[in-house]
Amino acid sequence: MRKLLAVILIMAIGLTLFGCSSDPAKDFVSEDLVTMEQLNTEGRYVARGYLESLFLNNRAMFNSCFPEGYVEDLEKVAGGDVFEQFTATTAIGGDFLGAATTDHRDVTINNGYDVATFRSQICRVANCEYSDIGNIQIQKVQVLYMNSKAKMIADFYLTVYEIDGTWYMYELWSIKGF
């Protein structure tokens, strides 16, 4: 009985010291910041670049996440600085430390999405033809940040689309999941 109790005690101490961390950011691996050269080459880059542009106050990168003229047209409709509005509404509760694209899902019928609706909504917003749109993806990007007490991770799900090999941001789709 003593041997069993000793083994359990040793295992408990070992798990406490080495195994069970309550720090969700402990294993987070931040990817290098997206460059302007990478930005529109893949869905994962435009999604992560969009978030990085907001958290790092990079207006040029933000504008490049969208088709030419899109931001200017949106500002006419919105009646103000879209970058400032998006920055204010996509806030994290602390200082940005890094980001990583951790998953994606292609918007297909097989994955349970109404592809026609996605395409028609993107066409209305991006002022393009239905047939111009190639792939559509939902990208999961995790953001590591430091609040006043600890490192935290926030999950963002963003819809991106491709036209003629160039990827653009459509919308911040969800912070809850696919």
- Determine the number of helices (DSSP H or I, runs of at least 4 residues): 6
- The CATH architecture assignment turns out to be Roll
Strand order of the largest sheet: 1-2-3-4
Order of helices and strands: HHHHHEHEEE
What is CATH's topology name?
Nuclear Transport Factor 2, Chain: A
The structure class reads: alpha+beta
**First CA to last CA: what distance?**
50 Å
In helices, the fraction of residues equals 25-40%
Tell me what you see in this structure.
The chain has 178 residues and is of the alpha+beta class. It has one domain: Nuclear Transport Factor 2, Chain: A. The chain is built from six helices and four strands. The protein has helices spanning 2-19, 43-55, 59-64, 70-78, 82-89, 115-126; strands spanning 95-106, 133-146, 151-163, 166-174. The chain has a four-stranded antiparallel β-sheet. Strand 2 and strand 3 (151-163) form a beta hairpin. The longest helix has 18 residues, at 2-19. The radius of gyration is 21 Å and the shape is globular. The protein starts with a helix and ends with a strand. Mean pLDDT is 86; it is low at 1-21.
Gist of the model:
With about 180 residues, this protein is an alpha+beta fold. It has six helices and four strands. The chain is globular, with a radius of gyration of 21 Å.
Topology at a glance:
Blueprint: H1 2-19, H2 43-55, H3 59-64, H4 70-78, H5 82-89, E1 95-106, H6 115-126, E2 133-146, E3 151-163, E4 166-174
Antiparallel strand pairs: 1-2, 2-3, 3-4
List keywords for this structure.
alpha+beta; 178 residues; Nuclear Transport Factor 2, Chain: A; 27% strand; globular
